[in-house]
Design brief:
By secondary structure, this protein is of the alpha+beta class. The chain contains 4 helices and 4 strands; from the N terminus they run H-H-E-H-E-E-E-H. It has a single domain, classed as Double Stranded RNA Binding Domain. The longest helix is centred in the C-terminal third of the chain and has 35 residues. The chain is elongated. The mean pLDDT is about 80.
Length: about 170
C-alpha cells in the first residue's frame, strides 16, 4: 500500500515538471528507442588511462557508456588525465597525521573521429574522500585506500558521463 502511494505521489510531482519543459537526460524516443544521449554515449571510445586507478576509471566509464553492448562503432575518443593530491588532516600534537584527505582530479576531452579531430567537449571533475592512517594495520589501510580509489573512479565516471549526456541531449534539441 505504501509503495502504491509513493508511486502516485511521484507521478503527481513529475507532471508539473514535464509541463515546464523538464525532460530526463536519458529519455527514450517516442517509439521507445534509445534517446540521443544514450546513442551518442555508446559511440564513445575511452582511451587508456595510466595506472591502476586509471584502469578503474576507464572500466567505470565504459560501463556507463556501453553497458554490456559494445557493438556501436566509435565516433568519438574520450581522453582523460587522472591524478590525485593528498593532504594531512587531523594532526596530533606530535605532528602525526591520523587522517589523509585524497582529492581525485580528472580533466577530460572528447574529440570526434573526423579528419580534423574536432573538439566536441571538455571539462573537469573532482571527488573528495579520506582515509584513517593511525592505529590500523598496513593491510587494512591498504584495503581502505583501494576502496577509496574505486569509489573515486565511480564518482568521476558518473560526473563525466552525466556531463556528456547533457551535452548530447542539448545538441539534439
Amino acid at each position: 500500500m505504501r509503495l502504491a502511494r509513493r508511486a502516485c505521489l511521484l507521478v503527481l510531482l513529475a507532471a508539473p515538471l514535464e509541463a515546464c519543459g523538464f525532460r530526463p537526460v536519458y529519455m527514450p524516443t517516442a517509439s521507445g528507442n534509445q534517446g540521443p544521449a544514450e546513442r551518442e554515449l555508446a559511440a564513445i571510445h575511452v582511451n587508456l588511462i595510466p595506472e591502476r586507478s586509471g584502469q578503474l576509471l576507464r572500466q567505470a566509464l565504459q560501463q556507463d557508456m556501453h553497458g554490456t553492448d559494445e557493438s556501436v562503432p566509435p565516433r568519438y575518443d574520450l581522453s582523460v588525465a587522472y591524478w590525485f593530491t593528498t593532504e594531512a588532516i587531523a594532526i596530533l600534537p606530535n605532528t602525526t597525521a591520523t587522517r589523509v584527505r585524497f582529492i581525485a582530479h580528472a580533466n577530460w576531452t572528447l574529440l570526434a573521429r573526423d579528419p580534423a579531430h574536432t573538439k566536441v567537449a571538455e571539462g573537469a571533475a573532482r571527488a573528495f574522500g579520506g582515509v584513517d592512517v593511525i592505529d590500523t594495520q598496513y593491510f587494512a589501510a591498504d584495503l581502505q585506500s583501494e576502496q577509496q580509489f574505486a569509489t573515486f573512479a565511480r564518482q568521476i565516471a558518473d560526473q563525466i558521463t552525466l556531463r556528456l549526456a547533457t551535452i548530447f541531449r542539448e545538441r539534439a534539441g
